[in-house]
Predict the 3D structure of the following.
Amino acid sequence: MDHDPGAELVALYDDGRPVGVAPRHRVRARNLPHAATAVVVRNTAGDVYVHRRTDGKDVYPGRYDFCAGGVVRAGELPADSAAREVAEELGVTEVPLLSLGESDYADVSARYHAFLFTCTYDGTITWQPDEVAWGAWVAPRRLATMIDELDFVPDSVALLHRWLDALRA
C-alpha cells in the first residue's frame, strides 16, 4: 500500500464483501474493484433531484446524475457512506435512507459493488461546489426523457434501470 498519510483510503470489495484497502488514486488509476453508494433523493411530491457533475470530477466529469454518492471509505459501513455522501454533495441530512438493494457495475472508468438507497427530502439543497455544477427537482417522467436527451453517468442508469423503467411506465 502507498504510504501517503493524507490519501483517502477506499474499501476494496470482491463478491460484495470488503477484502482490502487502497488509496483512492490507486483505485482510480487501476480501476480496482471497490464499493460505492448511490442515493436517489426525492421530495414528497415525488420529484427526483438531478444534478450535473463538475468538469473537475475524476470519473464522468460534466455529466448529469440523479444519484448522490461515492466510494465507501476503508472501515466505513455502506449506509454511513451513503449518508456522508448525500450530506456532502447536496446538503441532505437527518433523513432515513431506504435500501434499494445492491448490484455490481463495471466499465473502463469504474468497477464497484453498489449499495443503492433512496430518501425523501423537502429541505434546501446545498451543493458542494467541487462536485455539483447545477441541479434541479425534476418530475419522474421528465427524468426518463432527460436520460434519453442528455449525457447521464452510465453507472446510475445501469444500476437503477428497473427503477427507471417504472418511471417510464
